[in-house]
């Protein structure tokens, strides 16, 4: 996978993916976050894909206009870290620093570096919650991995591996802890039976509110871009 940009104002990030199955160039714009992805055959030169994108520029920008709510991580923008809006402010510090209403970033920072900081913050929060619920359940998990998943907020494998979306750090704390309780409950019930939901309620308590938040507002967490 490679990343390029379509020139213009503003420049449009392009993600190039190669596929052994592809017979021609295909173009897709994500309905979640407006990400523009070009899929091309394995042996096709990247320049041809970029030329294809240039030819489709008007179409791309028209469709991206429908994603006007996309927020780019840049100075002055706000991110809902722990579900609380915090403005990105450049400081003289050499590290990222989370304050009540701001997140301070170093003078030389990138969106990717900020994303890494948020991922580590998410890992700390999710590990703490997972440890808490696993201890309450009397079961142990093998490991925790974080991904930028689009179709699920977490998962639990049969061997006790927990996976979470790092974007949960952008959700309210009770939503993050609910997802942790949900996945840990799978250590005892690898299904979504009545027994499973009863286990979630034992671990977390009344879970309907955070579950409904994910259903109605969870998609908004994907509108924050760190390219």
Automatic annotation (TrEMBL):
Superkingdom assignment: Bacteria
- Classification via InterPro entries: UTP_pyrophosphatase-like, YgjP-like_metallopeptidase
What is the native source organism of this protein? Parasedimentitalea maritima
Q: What is this protein called?
A: DUF45 domain-containing protein
Q: Which residues form the YgjP-like metallopeptidase domain?
A: 24-216
């Amino acid at each position: 996978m490679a990343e390029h940009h379509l020139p213009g104002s503003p420049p449009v990030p392009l993600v190039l993916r190669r596929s052994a199955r592809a017979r021609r160039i295909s173009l897709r714009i994500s309905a979640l976050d407006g990400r523009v992805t070009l899929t091309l055959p394995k042996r096709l030169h990247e320049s041809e894909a970029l030329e294809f994108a240039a030819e489709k520029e008007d179409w791309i920008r028209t469709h991206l206009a429908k994603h006007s709510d996309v927020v780019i991580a840049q100075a002055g923008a706000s991110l809902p870290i722990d579900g609380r809006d915090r403005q990105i402010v450049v400081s003289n510090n050499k590290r990222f620093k989370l304050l009540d209403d701001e997140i301070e970033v170093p003078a030389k920072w990138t969106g990717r570096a900020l994303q890494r900081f948020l991922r580590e913050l998410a890992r700390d929060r999710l590990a703490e919650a997972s440890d808490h619920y696993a201890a309450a359940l009397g079961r142990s998990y093998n490991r925790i991995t974080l991904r930028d998943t689009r179709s699920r907020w977490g998962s639990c494998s049969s061997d006790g591996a927990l996976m979470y979306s790092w974007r949960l750090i952008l959700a309210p704390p009770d939503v993050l802890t609910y997802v942790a309780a949900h996945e840990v409950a799978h250590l005892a019930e690898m299904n979504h039976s009545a027994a499973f939901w009863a286990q979630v309620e034992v671990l977390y308590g009344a879970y309907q509110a955070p579950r409904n938040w994910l259903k109605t507002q969870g998609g908004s967490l994907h509108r924050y871009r760190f390219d």
